[in-house]
Amino acid sequence: MTKNKILGHLEKYVVTYLFIALSVLFIVVSGLDINYVASQLLLRLNRNAFIVLALIIPIIAGMGINFAITIGAMAAQIGLLLTINWGVTGVAGILLAAAITLPLGAFFGFLIGKLLNKMKGQETIGSLILGYFANGAYQLLFLFIFGNIIPLNSNVTIVGASGVQNTLNLTGSVKLYTAVDSIARIPFLTAMYIFAGVLAGAAVVQFVRKKISGPRLAATLILAAVIAGIFMVPAVAAVFNGTHGREIRLPLVTWILILLLCLFNSTIMRTRLGQKFRAVGQSQTVANASGINVDRTRVIAIMISTVLAGFGQILFMQSDGIGTFQTYAAHEQVGLYAGAAILVGGASIDRATNLQALVGTFLFHSLFITAQSAASVMFGDSAVGEYFRAFLSYGVIAVALIMYAWRSAKQKRAQQISLDEGTHESAAEKEA
Predict the structure, then answer these.
(1) How far apart are CA 174 and CA 93, in angstroms?
(2) pTM for this one?
(3) In whole angstroms, what is the distance from residue 111 CA to residue 68 CA?
(4) At a CB cut-off of 8 Å and minimum separation 6, what does 161 contact?
(5) What percent of the chain has pLDDT over 70?
(6) Residue 138's Cα: distance from chain center in Å?
(7) Most exposed of 56, 81, 172, 330 (fewest Cβ within 10 Å)?
(8) b/e 125-142 (16+ beta carbons within 10 angstroms → b)
(9) Domain-by-domain residue ranges, the chain?
């Protein structure tokens, strides 16, 4: 690898490497038990990975970070409220909430897409402001319309007043708490061995079908062996098998859903619609000249993202460690934290992958877990850690926007220089 390639790679993933360094530093400085950190990190991955993955399609379609996924989360919370109101419990309640979220999220996504088509080039900021605007409509809906115009039972409304209660319980008779997570749990180590085996098996099948080359097969088999080998190391295995704390177990169905979304994101890009997303993201002018309905394609991208974000919010709300539904605040930071997480993973305003989404979620939340304890050790005040979390959330988004603007300006300068050189050469040829 040449020096220029190394510098280009570091420039491209500078935020990711910075977060890796900070994560290692904070874990060491905080002094937290590694079993606790690992269990909390897995818990946050269970909750947040689906929502972060919902951002990928609009990014590929050239629409930037879709902060309006907050509105998808609102659709999910409407579905959860109605599910609790009607007394549908367990997995059936989760499915009902998802069924309500689907049309609501698609409708909201359609409106969002139509609006963002009016502000091309400013989608990231536009979707952020749109999320704030929608929050006002959401508050009106839950404070006045629900319980007054739309009747609800006393289990979810404020006694002696109008509107929905500030907090709704998902435990007890409601039975929505961990409804998906608790369907099946397997030891984390077992899950990693299964993953390594599936990865190796899939690579062999792809090689037999002549979909990948021999070197690619060898690299994948080595990766699978490394993954399995790492978790066979006694010191590593002890972190997860309960030797130094409780055994860490994986919610199988939740992760099947997360992996299915990864598969969906990868598969749709190989379809005709996915090629339209890529074409529109690379150049709207060229895509339009090729006969692609640019506006319609962008609206579809936002609709898919909004619906997926709603499903992700349902998984978040039912997950282990939540237990309650903060009616008026549960959705507020969804877009901000998801956007920051995917950028931390190495994504940018115009490119993103499943791996970047998952890595970003891992790194972003590793700092969230350790920030307060590390701040207490370094500064003697855990409140500093809370401020640091907010700083990271907004800071990483600001850095990504600056880097994108800088790269765009750099590309335009290079194109202009190339154009000028071509013009000079043509003039010289004419003179000759």
Answers:
(1) 9
(2) 0.88
(3) 11
(4) none
(5) 88
(6) 22
(7) 172
(8) ebbbebbeebbeebeebb
(9) 3-185+251-422
155 touches 84 (CB < 8 A): yes
Of 48, 51, 80, 50, the closest CA to residue 325 belongs to 80
Whether residue 432 has pLDDT greater than 60 = no
CATH number of 3-185+251-422: 1.10.3470
Strongest mean pLDDT among 346-350, 380-384, 416-420: 346-350
If you write DSSP's letter for every residue of 128-189 in order, what string do you get?
A: HHHHHHHHHHHHHIIIIIIIIIB---TTTBPTTSSSB-SEEE-SGGG--TTTTTTS-EEEHH
pLDDT at 424: 59
* Ordered alpha helix ranges (H), 32-165: 34-53, 56-60, 69-86, 90-116, 123-140
What whole-number percentage of the chain has pLDDT above 90?
31
Pairing relationship of beta strands 324-326 and 167-169 according to DSSP bridges: antiparallel
Three-state secondary structure call for residue 239: helix
Query: Cβ(352)–Cβ(277) under 8 Å?
Result: no
Residue 427 and residue 64: Cα distance in Å, rounded? 40
Pairing of strands 185-187, 249-251: antiparallel
Written as one string, the DSSP assignment of 351-400 is ---HHHHHHHHHHHHHHHHHHHHHHHHHHS-THHHHHHHHHHHHHHHHHH
Query: Per-residue pLDDT tens for 128-147?
Result: 888 888 988 899 888 888 87
Q: What is the Cα–Cα distance from 145 to 329, expressed in whole angstroms?
A: 18
For the chain, the residue count is 432
Is residue 312 classed as helix, strand or coil in its secondary structure? helix
Mean predicted lDDT score pLDDT of the chain: 85
Tokens of 324: 């309650």
* Confidence check: pLDDT of 10 > 80: no
Average pLDDT over residues 15-24: 82
Helix (H, G, I), strand (E, B) or coil at 414: helix
Q: Tokens at residue 420, please?
A: 């000028």
Whole-angstrom distance, CA of residue 400 vs CA of residue 55:
15
With left for phi above 0 and alpha for psi between -120 and 50, is residue 90 left, alpha or beta? left
